[in-house]
Amino acid sequence: MPPHVGLVPFKNDEDAARIYNDTDFGLSMAVITESYRRMRFFRDECEYGMGYVNLPCIGAEVHLPFGGTKGTGNGHREAGQAALDVFTEWKSIYVDYSGKLQRAQIDNLTE
Fold first, then answer.
1. pLDDT tens digit string along 47-73?
2. Rounded CA gap, 14 and 24, in Å?
3. Between residues 53 and 1, which one has the greater pLDDT?
4. Model-level pTM greater than 0.70?
5. In 62-104, where do the E strands start and end?
6. 26-48 pLDDT tens trace
7. Angle formed by the axes of helices 13-21 and 36-45, to 10°?
8. What is d(CA 28, CA 49) in angstroms, rounded to the nearest whole number?
9. CB-based contacts of 8: which residues, under 8 Å, 6+ apart?
């Protein structure tokens, strides 16, 4: 199947954000603009997992947690630093090799 593109007319930025958000999906979003105000508007108002400004939506960034919002994605965000939380379990252990019974810090307060 050849690539497809959908063109949806809109009246203003608010209408475009409403149309964008009125879907069951939200993997990525791209805005082509020279306006900082417009970029911030779409950044804040649209529901997406990955956003691009003046770049194409490639849909994946291996160094970032991959996933979208709403019905987009297939489970955990398994990439980047976030993968550590998906595939590991955090544990802490403290070891004292002094051979002495240690008291709690509150017991060491001087009177």
1. 988 888 998 877 566 666 666 677 776
2. 19
3. 53
4. no
5. none
6. 878 888 999 999 999 999 999 98
7. 30
8. 6
9. 19
Q: How far apart are CA 10 and CA 92, in angstroms?
A: 54
CA distance 88 to 58: 28
Q: Tokens at residue 28, please?
A: 């990525």
Structure tokens at 109: 């307060």
User: Please, what sign has the CA dihedral across residues 47, 51, 56, 61?
Assistant: negative
Q: 88: which 2 tokens?
A: 């590991």
Token pair listed for 3: 């690539």
Q: What letter represents residue 75's amino acid?
A: G
Which tokens belong to 36?
């900082």
Distance CA 69, CA 25 (A): 6
